[in-house]
Write a structure and sequence with these properties.
Helix content: 25-40%
Distance between the termini: 40 Å
Number of strands: 13
Largest sheet: 7 strands, mixed
Oligomer: single chain
Radius of gyration: 22 Å
Shape: globular
Strand order of the largest sheet: 2-8-7-6-5-3-4
Structural class: alpha/beta
Bound molecules: ligand 7TS
Amino acid sequence: MKVYLDNNATTMVDPQVVEVMMPYFSELYGNPNSLHKFGTLTHPALAKALDQVYKAINASDNDDIVFTSCATESNNWVLKSIYNDLIVKGDKNHIITTEVEHPSILATCKALEELGAKITYLPVNSEGIVEPHVVKGFITDKTALVSVMWASNETGMIFPIKEIGEICKEKGVLFHSDAVQAVGKIPVDLQDVHVDFLSMSAHKFHGPKGIGALYIKDSKALSPLMNGGEQMGGRRSGTLNVPFIIGMGKAIELATTDLESKMASIRAKRDRLEDALLELSDVMVVGKREHRTPNTILISIRGVEGEGMLWDLNNNQIGASTGSACASEDLQANTVMLAIGADHELAHTGIRLSLSRFTTDMEVDFAISEFKKAVFRLRSISSSYAKVGPTPGGESKECELHH
Ligand code: 7TS
């Protein structure tokens, strides 16, 4: 058996998504901007895909949704264009984000900092989220943008986006949310929550890789990142990736239809896995489960290096992660765990397990048994764990880290 538990890194493309994409590679391959039939024949399916995305996030007709190549592009676009439009050409100088964003936000902020922007990286609480009053405390009349993720790719923790959106609205500051780990996993209703810009990515909800979108409330002005042939109303130049856009539309529709029941089913499997792993001594899961997306567990196992654990799981046909694949090529401690206040030893023992609607009960059973075996095996050869042994009581918990 092979068990894929790294769905926060990417997901399997749903076969129904592949099916709707297929005709647009070799049959209906026209460029939608061409005036002949080869081009115009793609229009109905493109319009449908756009509708599917609008509906899934409850966007209004006044809003814009612009397809991009990925969420990394959407995030770069918002940050760089706000910097150009409101800082270089305007009278603002400040952007607020958090310490635990994805590298596509953090590295872009670092680059803008080098160009002279003032960036505030907000600290997170012991569960790894930013509290609304902390955001409020840092907004000044020079703040151009607040950018806070909707849900963490590492911990699954859901941020108080509604409250932060209200604060930004009240203060007249633009608000961006990287909702890559929220869309398709938990309800995202943009009539209920005030967000000016929202990034999403199809490959996190069983769509293809290499296609994403940026939602823009009230179609507000934002200078383009890509200049060229003026596609997408001049917002994002580059020939439209027709099959991938169609795939994204289908994928978001499938993910958000009967979302509550899909969430309940994934949550039941995640909770069963988590309960079983918490039977081990000296393990800790970051964040209360009711505060997390229903598919994610970030667990630390005292005495077991994250990379060793991954290796062992991989040898036994289980794909997991020590955290974001975007940052895991070097053997660094999990940065989110450090931001939460974990010591370096603990931050080196984090393993992220992320399920999907395709994860089966049998796979969960297999993962539980292999995970436990790997922990026993690795602890038995861990010099540090052997020396100290289980901590007194050795109790395991799902909790907040205490500083
Ligand atoms: N934002 C978040 C919150 C993400 O989790 C990711 C990918 C991205 C942006 C980038 O999306 P892309 O469309 O450019 O690929 N996150 C991860 C991860 O956690 N492990 O591998 C990729």
